[in-house]
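Duplicate of #3305? Posting structure anyway:
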């Protein structure tokens, strides 16, 4: 029993499926003093396959599959009832073709189902050739207990794996959202460049001069966009490996970030007939990550732009806060506004976009960036009048005990 306790402790400490299978099978063999053992699971082709095998023929077994209608393993898998075969020569169930393929002689066999609670079997645990005599009811009880633990911990390991994939998918969704915004900024420049080239080909007066002048803007825009996309792809690669990309804090002027965002929005805003303004303290300095801060401001401003009708405006403002240790960035639009419920959910994981094809990720991205800097976002909105996103951020790097506590 003490050995079983140690087995349980080890199994619950493991989340990698392959390692779990090997550890559990070895433990089961030790507990019943078996010479060999295997874990047999249903594969994607609806065949039973040896996913783990230890013993003289272990390596050969891993290449074999068979029908769930065959052998002792198939019978136990289908019925969920364990079986002891202490004389395989007289057995009507034993699959002798496996012994022939492996050149290994199975004398005795203990097989128990792997089931989560009372559900369908997901596989079987087989223990072969007990060294110290025939398999008995005590061996069966211990094997069933270990089989239950194997099934449960395999299930938990799969849940852990699914959780990791969900986390990566969430990060991927946020990154793809950012990339989409960056491409939205780049494409108008490239499309406008085509019209300018058409003017040159048609020989319109001043077309060449316009091309030379506009070309530098296109190159700058594309270079900035590509650099930012490369940074984002590095972030998702780090996330896949379970790493957190640290902020690259620099002493700089937030006003310059707002100017960059305004420039990025100029083309789509002009097409929508919306004016973009940058106001506030041009001299204020803070320690911030320019790229991530730009991402947060751009997301807020771009969402505001999509909600603002022709003739409206987007105003980006940076100013001092009541607390001299902080400063404030405001992104105000004269758009449709949002309800109290929408405003409460804007920065939460429960937020869902009301736009067709929208993900609702923009607000979560803004909150993530603000919190990384040690600050908090908030929103003020009036239906029919517009929305103002407010980022309250520290001027200096904030420690864990200094960061603002954001409301959920």
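Output from current build:
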């Amino acid at each position: 029993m003490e050995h079983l306790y140690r087995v349980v402790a080890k199994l619950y400490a493991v989340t990698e499926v392959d390692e779990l299978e090997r550890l559990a099978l070895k433990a089961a063999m030790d507990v019943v003093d078996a010479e060999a053992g295997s874990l047999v699971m249903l594969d994607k082709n609806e065949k039973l396959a040896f996913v783990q095998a230890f013993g003289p023929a272990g390596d050969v077994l891993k290449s074999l599959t068979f029908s769930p209608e065959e052998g002792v393993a198939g019978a136990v898998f289908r019925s969920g009832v364990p079986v002891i075969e202490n004389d395989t020569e007289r057995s009507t169930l034993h699959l002798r073709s496996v012994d022939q393929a492996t050149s290994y002689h199975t004398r005795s066999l203990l097989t128990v189902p792997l089931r989560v609670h009372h559900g369908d079997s997901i596989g079987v645990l087989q223990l072969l050739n007990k060294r110290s005599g025939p398999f008995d009811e005590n061996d069966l009880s211990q094997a069933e207990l270990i089989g239950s633990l194997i099934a449960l911990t395999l299930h938990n390991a799969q849940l852990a794996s699914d959780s990791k994939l969900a986390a990566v998918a969430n990060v991927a969704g946020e990154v793809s959202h950012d990339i989409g915004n960056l491409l939205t900024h780049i494409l108008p420049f490239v499309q406008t460049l085509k019209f300018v080239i058409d003017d040159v080909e048609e020989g319109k007066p001043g077309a060449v001069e316009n091309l030379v002048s506009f070309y530098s803007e296109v190159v700058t825009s594309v270079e900035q966009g590509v650099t930012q996309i490369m940074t984002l792809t590095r972030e998702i690669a780090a996330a896949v490996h379970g790493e957190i990309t640290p902020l690259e804090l620099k002493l700089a002027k937030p006003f310059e970030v707002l100017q960059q965002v305004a420039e990025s929005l100029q083309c789509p805003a002009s097409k929508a007939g919306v004016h973009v303004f940058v106001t506030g303290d041009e001299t204020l300095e803070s320690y911030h990550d320019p790229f991530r801060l730009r991402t947060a401001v751009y997301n807020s401003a771009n969402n505001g732009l999509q909600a603002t009708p022709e003739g409206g405006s987007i105003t980006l403002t940076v100013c001092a806060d009541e607390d001299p240790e902080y400063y404030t960035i405001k992104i105000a639009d004269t758009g449709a506004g949002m309800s109290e419920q929408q405003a409460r959910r804007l920065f939460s994981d429960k937020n869902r976009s009301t736009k067709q094809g929208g993900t609702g990720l923009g607000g979560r991205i803004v909150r993530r960036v603000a919190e990384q800097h040690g600050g908090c976002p908030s929103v003020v909105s009036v239906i029919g009048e517009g929305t103002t996103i407010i980022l309250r951020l520290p001027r200096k790097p904030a420690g864990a005990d200094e960061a603002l506590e954001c409301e959920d």
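Confirmed duplicate; merging threads. Residues 246-408 form a domain with the Heat Shock Protein 90 fold (CATH 3.30.565.10). The longest helix spans residues 137-201.
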